[in-house]
Design a protein that fits this description.
By secondary structure, this protein is of the alpha+beta class. It has helices spanning 2-24, 36-40, 50-60, 111-120, 135-138, 154-163, 167-176, 180-193, 218-231, 233-240, 307-322; strands at residues 69-70, 84-89, 95-99, 105-106, 130-132, 151-153, 215-216, 243-247, 253-257, 269-277, 281-290, 293-302, 323-324. The chain folds into two domains: 2-60, no CATH class; 69-324, DD-peptidase/beta-lactamase superfamily (Beta-lactamase).
């Protein structure tokens, strides 16, 4: 009787060990019944040969992105007035068009992309912090009816700066986030961190000034624009808006339009920031959709009279006509 009990105890013990081995994935010298989750996480299990593990891992990797291909290398240059221009596929980094992309030019209000990014590096969207319009900011040329001593949320000042390109709004951001000199230092540090070696900034708004105005290259502005698109979703949402309304703390209401006239008119346009001064000419940095691919387009020193938009349209059509995916 004692022998039978011992036999049952031993049988139960062996059964438990066998079940445990199956559950934990230990099967001597066998590669059958592989744990797919283990392969998915790149774990070598069940004595699987290294070559088999690599094969399974490679099978799980995504297919490479299909690149734009030129249909014909013998094509005419696009008809644009911009002295510098650059078109880049954001997904591959491939340059689709380059015209003097390393030449330095003044930027005008494209500057406000960088100043807004510097603010957002320190500010959390939705904190609803109020800042007061100062006399010095109000006196900046190209105001937006933001009255002195009126309090506005930081988010609304960013909207005014990016959408209607309000220079007093950009100046107020610089004064409110460290003061003008400190803010300029932050802007240049941000530019250097992004690899913008051909750029220097002296103000937050982009107006011409003596002795030196902000300057950059189409190549550098492309780096700035891609970083904006990749890492600043709140600012991208602002740039997508055709119009909005902001309110001061005391109830002043201001309607803002967007200076990017291609919004809602051109289906390829996703976001863009305009600029215009006497020295810079017309400028535009934009993110567009071409053949369902995200593409950046920068035009600097376009002719005055709306040519920044026509140059961008012509570049979009040129890519559509001369490239395929």
């Amino acid at each position: 009787m004692k022998f039978k009990k011992l036999y049952w105890y031993i049988s139960i013990f062996i059964a438990i060990i066998s079940i445990g081995n199956v559950v934990l994935g230990f099967t001597p010298d066998s590669t059958e019944g592989l744990n797919n989750l283990g392969v998915l996480h790149h774990i070598k299990i069940l004595n699987m040969p290294d070559t088999q593990v690599v094969a399974n891992i490679n099978a799980l990797e995504p297919a490479p992105i299909v690149k734009f291909r030129k249909i014909n290398n013998e094509v005419a240059e696009p008809n644009i007035t911009a002295e510098s221009a650059l078109v880049v596929d954001f997904e591959t980094g491939d340059i689709l068009y380059n015209k003097n992309a390393l030449n330095r030019h003044q930027l005008a209000s494209i500057t406000k992309l960088l100043s807004s990014m510097v603010v957002m590096d320190e500010y959390k969207w939705g904190d609803d912090k109020y800042i007061s319009m100062t006399q010095t900011a109000f006196d900046t040329y190209g105001g937006n009816s933001l009255k002195v001593d009126e309090q506005f949320k930081v988010e609304d000042i960013l909207r005014a700066s990016l959408m209607v390109s309000s220079n007093d709004a950009a100046q107020l951001l610089a004064e409110s986030f460290g003061g003008v000199e400190v803010f300029n230092t932050k802007m240049n540090k941000k530019a250097q961190d992004l690899g913008m070696q051909g750029s220097e900034f002296f103000n937050a708004h982009g107006l011409d000034q003596k002795p030196t105005s902000n300057y950059s290259t189409a190549s550098d502005i492309m780096k700035l624009t891609q970083d904006l698109y990749d890492n600043y979703p709140d600012l991208i949402e602002v740039l997508k808006q055709r119009e909005t309304i902001i309110n001061s703390k005391s109830g002043q209401t201001i309607r803002l339009g967007n200076t990017n006239e291609m919004l809602d008119k051109d289906i390829q346009m996703i976001v863009g920031k305009t600029g215009l001064t006497d020295e810079a000419g017309e400028t535009l940095s934009s993110v567009v959709s071409i053949k369902n691919r995200i593409v950046g387009i920068v035009v600097l020193k376009s002719g005055i009279g709306g040519y920044r938009f026509q140059d961008t349209r012509n570049l979009i059509k040129w890519i559509e006509d001369n490239y395929e995916i």
